[in-house]
Design brief:
Elements (H helix, E strand, L loop, with lengths): L1 E4 H10 L1 H12 L3 E6 L2 E6 L2 H9 L5 E2 L4
Helix pairs in contact: 1-2
Length: 67
Amino acid sequence: MRRYPAHKVTPLLVQYPDLMEAWKEAAKTGLLRAETRDGKNYVVVEDLSLIARLKALGLEGEPVEEA
């Protein structure tokens, strides 16, 4: 599971329609969630294929540990 700044993910979703479709599917199955930390918006991604795709596009994200 990784956390990504929403402002870095959004342009990629616009640029890559296939990524947007995969994103929508992950959202439907509950593998994405939004969160706000210190006034900034983030997306937590649990879908391993989306994590790999975002990494290939240059976004590393940060690891998320569930309590």
